[in-house]
Design brief:
This protein has helices at about 1-15, 35-40, 45-50, 50-60, 65-70, 105-115, 175-185, 200-205, 215-220, 230, 235-240, 265-270, 280-285, 300-310, 315-320, 330-335, 385-395, 420-430, 435-440, 450-460, 465-480, 510-535; strands spanning about 30-35, 85-90, 95-100, 125, 130-135, 135-140, 145-150, 210-215, 240-250, 255-260, 295-300, 335-355, 360-380, 405-410, 415-420, 445-450, 480-490, 495-500. The chain is an alpha+beta fold.
């Protein structure tokens, strides 16, 4: 009995895979939804109490929609089990698929019939039930699982015209007969044909979080490098290139952690020229005070040159630079690789423009011009080499000097560009010690966004009489605080973290998002009522008021 049980268990594991997800190994994009984790942070009863949910219920004009909105379990779907969505290229086309568990197969079949208002004909192919939702979509299910599959040619990724060498119109669309074959293939997946045969994927799904993301750049772009594109070895940038991420709704913040895996050739270069941690000296040169956003990055210029050589772009670059007596080696000698950028403020000022009327007279109109105050800087490694590059920039782009309102300073081993002389001088002086310095330094890159400052900037543009918009901005100020990101590299993989912080640090961010949506919906309803009373809609023939729906 133990021996037979072991065989059954082994067979079931081989069929369902380690994660239980039926996702093909060559899927381009995968999104896994951890319903157990999500429902533990926000219950359906909490959702039902909100304005946006009640509005959704009111706008549902048929009994089935209202039934599903009020009781999703009535569909027969197991709403407590995980869902998975994936995109897959198929030749010059592609398809999208959503899968989940079924708790009650009879209820699910009844739901399909009722949802289609009797138009969907449920058919069988072996043990598989299927019904056409439209001419490019198919819903399939067994007694325990459903798989929706739809035609999705991944426009812009399938056929590339021009430089790509392909035919931009050569996109394949799949009929429902083809989609049914693809669906059967999904149910039959097992062993090494499953994506969870890849340990990177199983590690991702096993990691604690509410949503998991998998992106295979290789599977998105594979087979696209034709014609002129094939002359450059762009596949070296996409081959075995995989991005993974886990998103969690934590107390007081939304956190996304992820990894970026590179292919063999790209990894070899990055291992040779790894990213260098952003120094506190660099961060402390950035503006202090209430900045809107800042970014710092440090990657050796030698690494960029090697990447250009890898993809075959060095020949074109040297051909252009050689005419000016410059080589790519001058580029790698000139710059350290440190870069910083910050936006300190966004100023709004009126701008008057003139135009000619049809009768030859002239009129003017006034608009609001947005001018961000910024500073951008590059670290100089070798001054003579940099001067050669900078001379080329002056010759080709700034024969008559910098653009109006732009300040360029080339001193103290820094190239600084700004629209504010004080910001440029402050960067060169250093010792600003901004409050966000600790959030950015000590990593290969770091970024900071002051959401409070950003909201305040846009709030100042609002007409004061628009009380609803002002209330929405005030609500946003009470909800969102700031965002920060940083990343590092080690042994063939780059790691990154993105955090969006809320003002309330004690409540999980999913509850806060639900509350925010509830209050914003109420404000929007108030705005619509005000608009309807101020600008009533009338019948074009009779002039009688039309009831506001």
């Amino acid at each position: 009995m133990l021996f037979l049980s072991g065989i059954v268990l082994a067979m079931s594991c081989n069929k369902a895979g380690k994660t239980g997800l039926l996702v093909p190994k060559d899927a381009a994009v995968v999104i896994h939804i951890n319903m157990k984790s999500l429902s533990s942070k926000l219950t359906f009863d909490e959702i039902k109490q909100t304005s946006w949910y009640r509005k959704l219920n009111e706008e549902a004009h048929d009994t089935l929609a209202q039934k599903i909105i009020n009781d999703p379990d009535a569909s027969g779907v197991d709403t407590k089990s995980d869902f998975a969505f994936f995109l897959k290229r198929q030749g010059y086309g592609g398809y999208a698929s959503l899968q989940g568990a079924i708790k009650d197969a009879n209820a699910f079949a009844a739901f399909v019939k009722e949802a289609s208002k009797g138009k969907a004909e449920i058919q069988k192919s072996g043990d598989l039930n299927y019904a056409s939702t439209h001419d490019k979509g198919l819903l399939t299910w067994t007694s325990s699982k459903f798989v929706f599959i739809g035609d999705s040619p991944m426009q812009g990724m399938s056929g590339m015209g021009g430089m790509g060498g392909g035919n931009a119109g050569s996109v394949t669309h799949f009929s429902n007969d083809s989609l049914l074959l693809f669906a059967k293939g999904i149910y039959a997946l097992s062993g090494e044909d499953l994506l969870d045969d890849n340990s990177k994927f199983t590690d991702l799904i096993a990691s604690e979080g509410d949503l998991h993301f998998w992106v295979s750049t290789d599977n998105i772009y594979k087979g696209m490098a034709n014609g002129m594109m094939n002359m450059m070895k762009l596949s070296a940038l996409t081959e075995d290139n995989i991005g993974t991420a886990t998103l969690s709704f934590d107390n007081g913040k939304i956190t996304m952690t992820g990894k970026q895996y590179y292919g063999k050739e790209l990894t070899k270069i990055i291992d040779k020229f790894p990213p260098v941690n952003v120094s506190k000296d660099l961060i402390n040169r950035l503006p202090s005070g209430d900045v809107i956003g800042a970014l710092a990055f440090n990657y050796p210029s030698e690494g960029w040159v090697e990447i250009m050589k890898l993809i075959g772009a060095d020949g074109l670059a040297n051909m252009f630079l050689g005419q000016k007596g410059i080589t790519l080696d001058d580029f790698s000698k000139a710059l350290k690789g440190e870069m910083a950028f910050a936006v300190t403020d966004i100023q709004q000022r009126p701008q008057t423009s003139e135009y000619e009327n049809g009768d030859g007279t002239k009129s003017t109109y006034t608009t609001t011009k947005t001018d961000p105050n910024f500073v951008f800087a590059l670290a100089i490694k070798d001054k003579p080499s940099f001067d050669k590059l900078f001379g080329l920039v002056n010759e080709e782009m700034m024969k008559n000097g910098p653009p109006p309102g732009i300040v360029i300073k080339n001193e103290k081993d820094w190239l600084v560009v700004s629209n504010n002389d004080a910001n440029a001088a402050s960067f060169l002086t250093g010792n600003n010690k901004p409050a966000y310095a600790d959030k950015l330094s000590g990593h290969g890159f770091g970024g900071y966004l002051n959401i409070q400052k950003l909201i305040t900037t846009f709030k100042n543009e609002i007409v004061r009489e628009d009380s609803s918009a002002i209330a929405a901005m005030d609500l946003s100020m009470k909800t969102w605080q700031d965002g920060v990101t940083w990343g590092d590299y080690k042994s063939g993989a780059a790691t990154f973290v993105i955090e969006v912080n809320f003002v309330d640090k004690t409540t999980n961010s999913l509850k806060q998002l639900n509350r925010y949506a509830d209050q914003m919906t109420a404000l929007h309803d108030e705005y619509e009522k005000k608009q309807a009373s101020q600008y009533p809609v009338t019948d074009t023939l009779t002039g009688a008021p039309v009831p506001n729906k």
